[in-house]
């Protein structure tokens, strides 16, 4: 069976002329729903589909430099692949990627790669350049966009999504040419190659979407979008919230349905939605309004929420990505990845991917937990490097987000952004965690807020609770209230404003928090 096919040349996308919106809505809905029958194939035969994906990736890449180095032509099963090809981080493949950026081809992928997504999944100064092949564009990124709509429409048969437009908010900047190749935000690459039908059904225009200066771009987006019949929102929750609050302020309305009456769904991803959920409910006060989460990155598109009102994401198995998983409880042991068919429920795993963009057994840096195996549904639990484990407490993003969600419900506080880091032991002084939080609505009693945070973390994380017992290792956490726009100004100082740039929530080092505390004191 063949689940996807590779092309040596980009396909000619259908150029759809302008047509009456009701007709466009009917045609688009019909085409997208047809895809659901293909999705049912990997739901029914997940292991077969994943094995076929790996087989096609290996066969297609036999003649590359890596293919010859690892003897792809002799690999006949997963075990051969796992034994021959090493698991790698970005630093270990950066040299090959840089050679390709300078014009060398056929190193790790057989078709020419001319686009590179400049990744800023963290605010680290060092940038990553992720190769984006034609196959990755067509069979992963664009396919996933259609599948997101397909799954949503399958669950909401009365949807009028295509009767209006989708308000998209990316971090796009123009693409920059370097030695005949191009680099920039993934969203810029996607927009640059987008089919006409997608632009026709979206707002703002490509010209505005690709503006570099963030504040001017927000103003331009508002000017264009408030005149449109917006039926859906697409973007990272933290940055979308900034835009939507600006829309409310500019129009003088009390909620978004007074501006866009037919708004029905928000497609979000990139950061956890938990700290922002209540603020969105105030802006979108309809019980039947839908929220759909996605899991995508510069390296590929991985999972989509496939049911209304669910926190679980369906792992998409036919995008030209082969998945492996490293149990996070295997620290100190030999690092061993397992294939999809060996995963267990409830275990925290680091993801390893092999992709149609030429990444081979690549550690993406994210962690997930499987919530079901029939079908394979996951929840994102954090980053392998974004956690606090200075004292053996193993505090992960999932713990932090849930604790803050509970506190906000209890205290009616609203959080904009936050970060946390350890305060290391000094002599006989015990360690602690230091938080800096920017509130939209500040709690009346920070001491009570801090105590609740501590208790919530204890209830969610037994390692944290053990270290806090009688202050054996950890003291009560310290919480600083950030001045308004602190995180915005910090990102701006690093030229990292925009929808694809994220605040590092948890860190084992104090670099981020020291800079933020200094800026907070200087105001």
TrEMBL record:
Signal peptide: none annotated. Residues 398-510 form the GH3 C-terminal domain. Pfam families: GH3, GH3_C, GH3_M. GO terms for cellular component: cytoplasm. Residues 315-383 form the GH3 middle domain. This is GH3 auxin-responsive promoter. InterPro entries: ANL_N_sf, GH3, GH3_C, GH3_M. It comes from the Bacteria. GO terms for molecular function: acid-amino acid ligase activity.
